[in-house]
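Before we proceed, please read the two lines closing this message. Let me know whether the structure tokens fit the sequence:

…
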Amino acid sequence: MAPIAQHQIPVWAFAAGRDRAIDIRYFYPGLATLESLGHKDVRFTVHEDMGHDAWTRVYQSEDFYSWLLTHKLAQ
């Protein structure tokens, strides 16, 4: 986690509220660690009505691609 925070690599994590494979509680410690290390671009979205395939909605969202395009590699 430290290298991600150190280099300020943008993070947008997604979870599904009805996911039986991965409980959303497991996301919070990692995200909190990034924030405690001074990471400034950490986002977390929970799709409460989705099962394990939350990525379907994510990849169909214009917001996701717009967010990606606002970032660039550091030189």
Observations:
- Strands lie at 11-16, 42-47.
